[in-house]
Design goal:
The complex is a heterodimer of chains A (260) and B (294). Chain A is mainly alpha-helical. Chain A contains ten helices and no strands. Classes of the chains: A mainly alpha (260), B alpha/beta (294). Chains A and B meet through helix 7 and helix 8 of A and helix 6 of B.
Chain lengths: 260, 294
């Protein structure tokens, strides 16, 4: 039943993809477009097959950067939100700078990060972190601050300490909001890692996808470039879906099914 | 004195975790006794000439006088917005009064709140934590008061049984009906054996049948526990059915206009609701309320 439903949902986009690939192949052959401009799907597939070892290892490096950036966002975003939740004046004086993280063009900050911290994996993680921390920080702050007044009264009535209110009320209350923020962040974190590798991904033993994209475009290996774009997309999708699955299992523990 | 004995008993066990909290409790108790010399009263709650003004300038309460003896059950009726909830918040030390005097168990409300387990509060909504099971919800106040886990569990399960929810001890709030959630809320308020039970229109959102059942539950629990209760409602019949006295409040500024004794003794069962004397009492309170409400 579930398999059939999944199949029913999956076949239209798959069929469209197949049709689009066939049309693309025909157009490229018919109009005789040079492969350095637009390679045919078959040529891209051949190239992807030939350099699959490079693609796989590059994807793994990028995945490691993205996941590290994501974990950093989750940890530091939540910690900063706890700090923000302590007092309105802390929020008022620091939140504008948190918004800075959201609005600053990451391509402008990435070179600065390389200048300050040098190229390498840690700078890639840092770029990914800067790009993906805001949704978690902002959602966690909202979840921590906007607690129902009556619940807060209940805790104050029993003389709960600040720590007890934080651990037993504010943090559990903000979990669904943090999870929602994490889903947005998980999409950004892969983009952050690839952008990071553009600027900081050199000088390492195994390059990531970002650096591979830079290389293949420099050498006009458009087939490889296409394969890299495909790999990046799949990677982002994978991270997003995996986060979605974890989020669903976390939330299902919180919202138990309604009484029948 | 009972509280003091319990505190000293625990003091002797030298549980390192509850030690500092107990020291604080003893200091507060000592201060309470010192105060009691100044404020000599046998009442559990003594309110004299209490006034409160909102930051907006609205005079919410003005010249409120009310006394509750040990074991009393007093209802507060009044139109919405007449300051009933404000009065409860002041009594429980969540809000500081502007003028007048409030004494709860010989203490200032703020000190009473800090001496832990002074107040059981049943809110208008069940106010349960959705990420905690029924058992974990009921034991929350005990947990905040630093009671050991085994005792916590034992006392909570006992109270869950007393409100008839033993089968649901490990259920989540979302799995319960409105009446069951309110029962959990009542168990949570009573599990700490509060000096004073405050109820803020707890049954307003329930259907008639459930409300009737919960009213009888409260009377039954009161019969065995003899807790002192201040019950806020805008339902006149509910007030007459539950309490020893009904205090009628005027709106803006809130003040107790009249106290109507409802001396039906322990004869509070389904029959009483159909009794002509009961109907007359409900009419009397209703008239008093209509006179003072605009």
């Amino acid at each position: 039943m579930k398999m059939r439903a999944m199949f029913a949902a999956a076949w239209p986009p798959v069929a469209f993809l197949a049709l689009a690939l066939v049309a693309w192949e025909i157009l490229v052959r018919w109009l005789e477009i040079p492969p350095y401009l637009v390679p045919s799907p078959a040529a891209v597939a051949r190239e992807a097959c030939m350099s699959r070892a490079d693609l796989v290892s590059a994807s793994l490096v990028t995945l490691a950067g993205a996941v590290s950036g994501f974990v950093a966002s989750l940890v530091f975003g939540t910690l900063a939100a706890v700090l923000f939740a302590q007092a309105a004046w802390i929020r008022a004086s620091l939140f504008p700078y948190a918004i800075f993280l959201q609005t600053v063009p990451i391509v402008a900050v990435a070179p600065l990060i390389v200048i300050w911290f040098g190229p390498g994996f840690h700078s890639v993680v840092l770029v990914s972190f800067v790009l993906s921390v805001f949704p978690i920080l902002s959602n966690a702050t909202t979840g921590l601050v906007r607690v129902d007044r009556e619940l807060l009264d209940l805790f104050r009535l029993h003389d709960a300490s600040r720590w007890q209110i934080l651990t037993r009320l504010r943090l559990p209350h903000s979990v669904p909001m943090i999870v929602a923020g994490a889903k947005v962040s998980s999409g950004l974190t892969v983009i952050g890692a690839i952008v990071g590798e553009f600027f900081a991904g050199y000088g390492v033993r195994t390059p990531g996808l970002g650096y591979l994209i830079l290389q293949s475009s420099g050498q006009l290996r458009t087939e490889l470039l296409f394969a890299c774009v495909g790999a990046s997309t799949l990677l982002g999708l994978g991270v997003f879906l995996a986060t979605g699955l974890v989020a669903r299992s976390v939330l299902s523990r919180l919202d138990e099914p309604q009484r029948e | 004195m009972g509280t003091a004995m319990r505190v000293f008993a625990r003091w002797n066990t030298t549980d390192p975790e509850s030690d500092t909290k107990d020291r604080r409790t003893i200091l507060i108790l000592v201060r309470c006794f010192q105060r009691m010399e100044r404020i000599e009263t046998a009442s559990t709650v003594a309110i004299k000439a209490l006034g409160y003004r909102f930051a907006s300038g609205l005079q919410a309460l003005d010249g409120v006088d009310l006394d509750l003896g040990p074991g009393d059950f007093v209802s507060l009726v009044g139109a919405s917005g007449c300051g009933k909830s404000t009065l409860l918040r002041i009594l429980s030390g969540l809000l500081a009064s502007d003028t007048g005097q409030v004494v709860v168990g010989g203490c200032d409300p703020l000190e009473a709140r800090r001496s832990r387990h002074a107040f059981g509060f049943v809110f208008q909504s069940p106010n349960l934590l959705p990420w905690r099971t029924v058992l974990e919800n009921v034991s929350l106040p005990l947990e905040l008061g630093g009671i050991a886990a085994t005792e916590r569990k034992e006392r909570s399960l006992d109270w869950i049984a007393r409100v008839g929810l033993s089968e649901f001890a490990h259920a989540w709030p979302a799995q319960l009906s409105g009446g069951m959630k309110m029962r959990v809320s009542i168990a949570r308020a009573l599990a700490i054996r509060p000096r004073l039970l405050l109820m803020d229109e707890p049954f307003a959102a329930l259907d008639d049948i459930t409300r009737g059942k919960l009213q009888e539950d409260i009377l039954r629990l009161r019969e065995s526990e003899r807790f002192t209760t201040l019950f806020v409602t805008h339902n006149v019949s509910e007030a007459a059915f539950l309490s020893d006295r009904v205090a009628v409040m005027t709106p803006r500024p809130g003040r107790i206009a009249r106290e109507v004794p409802t001396d039906f003794g322990t004869r509070r069962d389904a029959d009483l609701r159909g009794d002509p004397a009961f109907a007359a009492k409900v009419r009397e309170i209703g008239r008093a309320l209509a006179e003072v409400s605009p």
